[in-house]
Amino acid sequence: MKMEKRDYEGVMKYFDEDGDGKICAWELRKKLGMMDGCGETVMKEVELLVEELDSDGDGFVSLEDLMKLMEEAEEEEKIRDLEDAFQMYNDSQMLGFITPNSLQNMLARLGQSKSIHQCKAMIHHFDLNGDGLLSFHEFTVMMMH
């Protein structure tokens, strides 16, 4: 589920206690301390985090910085989800690839009966290098299509 700008603004508002449109290290430390339950977040670590996220060098995290961070996190989560899905279809004999047989077996487990010919046709559509198999890259292209 893609976050909307207003969602990012809500997160920004949570961290930006003084309402100046920027998150300083003190505000971030305070809110992260509340989240971890023990308030043990070290200020130096928070300052380093702000420095890392701060794209314009003003010492603060802006809405744009926050959006970039959260979009990167969403993208990483999508990749992890795709890796998990790929492993479900992965052929145990040909590790790292989805074969027509492994596709047919997984679809059967999901209650979708397909012939080996149909599975080959499904793979062929996204088989970028023409080897008759789907690599993780090809699977990703298919799932993002």
Automatic annotation (TrEMBL):
Organism encoding this protein: Vigna mungo (Black gram)
Q: What GO MF annotations does this protein's record show?
A: calcium ion binding
Coiled-coil positions: 63-92
* Keywords, in A-Z order: Calcium, Coiled coil, Metal-binding, Repeat
User: Where's the EF-hand domain?
Assistant: 3-38, 41-76, 114-145
Pfam families given in the database record:
EF-hand_7
What is this protein's record name? EF-hand domain-containing protein
Q: Which InterPro entries does this UniProt record tie to the protein? A: EF-hand-dom_pair (IPR011992), EF_Hand_1_Ca_BS (IPR018247), EF_hand_dom (IPR002048), EF_hand_pair_protein_CML-like (IPR039647)
PANTHER family per UniProt: EF-HAND CALCIUM-BINDING DOMAIN CONTAINING PROTEIN (PTHR10891)
